[in-house]
Amino acid sequence: MSFKHITFLFIAAVSLFFVSCKKEDIKSDHKITSFHATLGGASWEADTSRSEINEDDDEIIVLGMSSDYTVQMTLSGTGKGNFNLDDADNDLMVKTATKEYHYLNGTNGKVTLTLNDKVDHALSGEFSGMLIDTLLDTLLVESGEFTHIKYIDTTNTGSGPGTGTGICATNMIAASLDGNSMGLSFNAAITFATSIQVIGKNNSTLEAIQLVFPGNITAGTYTMDGLTNIATYTKVTGTTTASYVSVSGTLVIEEHDTTKKAIKGTFSFSAKEVSGSVTKEITAGSFCVKYN
User: Fold this and answer.
1) Quick one: which of 232, 200, 198, 201 has its CA closest to 215?
2) Which domain holds residue 93?
C-alpha cells in the first residue's frame, strides 16, 4: 500500500462550510447543476459546490459539500479527459467531521472530466475510487457525478501553489531523521477547520512528516506541544503503519502571508510512537509552501 495519499488527522471536530439547510438542486447562473455519489453504499448529494482551474499550477480542484460530507478532487491538468488517481498528483478526498479519507493507491480509481467549458467556465464529470483513512478504515466511492459546476480561473493571480511573487515560489519541505536526510517531496498544504496542515512524503521509503498549526499563526518561535502545534512522523512497512507524535520540539515561522496564503519556517521535534515507547528525532526541518 502506497502512503502517498494518506495523511494524519488529529483534529476531532470540523466546522463544515457552505452548508445549506435545505437540499435542492444547485443553480449555476441559468443552468441547474448537480453533484452526487454513493459513499459507502449510501446515496449522497452536495448542497453547494465550487471548482477552480489554475493553468500556472496545471491544477483543477472540484469540491462538493453537504452538512455531513465534503468531497474534493484535486487533478493535475487543465483540460478534459481521464485522470488516473494512481498518479501522485491526483487525489480524491472525502471528509467528515471526524475523518478524512484519501484515495488508496492501486485500486483503479479515476476521475473523468466530460466537460470543460471555457466560455461558460463550467466543469462536468464522473468519479469513483476506494479511499482510506489513517486508521486504515476504507470508504468506497461509486457512481460519482457532477454537472456544470462553475469554476474560478485563478491563473496569474498568485493564489495557487507555486504562483505569483513573494515567498514560496516553489513548494518544498525537507527534514532529517536521526541525522539522515529523509528525501521528502512536497505532498500537500491545506487549511482544515482553523488549522494549516503541511505534509511531506517519500514514496520510496513510505515515510511522511506532517505539521499542524493554527491558521492565524504569525512570525515567531513556538513549542511543538502536541496540542496547538503538532508534528507527526509515520513509516509504512507492509501492512503496518508506525505513527509517532511530537512530545517536544520547536516550530519557527519566518514569514506568513495570509493574503497569498504562503508560509515559510523551520522545525525540529522529538516524536514518540503512538502505540509504543520508541522515539524518533526529526531535525533540520524546513518548509516553504502555498496552501489551499
Assistant:
1) 198
2) 26-153
E strand intervals along 30-137: 31-39, 42-45, 48-54, 59-65, 70-76, 81-84, 91-95, 100-103, 110-117, 122-132
* Residue carrying C-alpha cell 502506497: 2
The C-alpha atoms of residue 163 and residue 69 are separated, in whole angstroms, by 30
Q: How far apart are alpha carbons 287 and 292 in whole angstroms?
A: 15
Residue 152 clears pLDDT 90, i.e. is over it = no
- Identify whether residues 197 and 147 lie together within a single domain: no
Domain count, the chain: 2
Question: In this predicted model, what pLDDT tens digit does every residue of 170-207 receive, in sequence order?
Answer: 788 988 898 888 988 888 898 888 899 999 999 889 99
Same domain membership, residue 100 and residue 144: yes
pLDDT tens profile 16-34? 222 233 333 443 333 457 8
In terms of domains, do 145 and 197 share one? no
- CA distance readout (Å), 237 to 98, 196, 241, 250: 26, 28, 6, 28
